[in-house]
Amino acid sequence: xxxxxxxxxxxxxxxxxxxxxxxxxxxxxxxxxxxxxxxxxxxxxxxxxxxxxxxxxxxxxxxxxxxxxxxxxxxxxxxxxxxxxxxxxxxxxxxxxxxxxxxxxxxxxxxxxxxxxxxxxxxxxxxxxxxxxxxxxxxxxxxxxxxxxxxxxxxxxxxxxxxxxxxxxxxxxxxxxxxxxxxxxxxxxxxxxxxxxxxxxxxxxxxxxxxxxxxxxxxxxxxxxxxxxxxxxxxxxxxxxxxxxxxxxxxxxxxxxxxxxxxxxx
Length: 266
What we know:
The protein is of the alpha/beta class. The protein has helices at about 1-20, 45-55, 95-100, 115-120, 145-155, 175-180, 190-200, 215-225, 235-245, 255-260; strands spanning about 25-30, 60-70, 75, 130-135, 135, 140-145, 165-170, 180-185, 205-210, 225-235, 250.
């Protein structure tokens, strides 16, 4: 009996220590409830998936993939080509709002493409939305028009600026975006990322693949006063590995397990 009590006490102390270590790490749904997850109820980047992620207890928000349509409207979509996941063809950047409104995913529920403004309204007061900005029109092999993009952000983020962070992988847009919004640079190269936060101190930090960064790098970035968010976290093992690095936050593909592993709300 004595040994059972000792084992119970050690287990309790370990659980308390783990909760203390991870309680300050923010947890966000990756593209809603997860990107390309076969067991997900809804397709990634759909309104249904985002809504479910935002309504899970203790969820800090979501990350979504955003593209600029031909009419200047911001739409959620991850892949470069519409035919990869939907009944549409071509690229979001070349299609009108009417065309995009009629496109749905090739799933049983046939979730429709959704405008960014229609998911912004789903945010609770204490939640954040990360916009992973897709800056290339693959059909034309060129970047989208930055001026048009700035206008779209100004009009369509209105009233939600304090809840939004922009993820950008194109260096030459960083400073102008960061003058108005919180901006994070996305890269899979740790050394490049370190150089970027030194070269562009106006940005707020980095977004990196979990497997591409070590705990020492996370510590260094945070010591510079910058944030670091990790993604591509698709299993319980990956969640625990990400938590062990003590980042600012994670974009979890298995959001329920990530929230459960953290244990409780901030």
